[in-house]
Amino acid sequence: MKKLILIFGILTFSLILTDCSRENESSNSAEIKINPPNWIQGTWLLENPNTNIGFRFTTNDVVIIQSGAELSQRGQLELFKNSGQSVSASNESSENIYKLISNFPGGQTTIYSFTKISNTKIKWDAVTNSVYTKQ
Question: 3-state class of 112 per DSSP?
Answer without folding.
Answer: strand
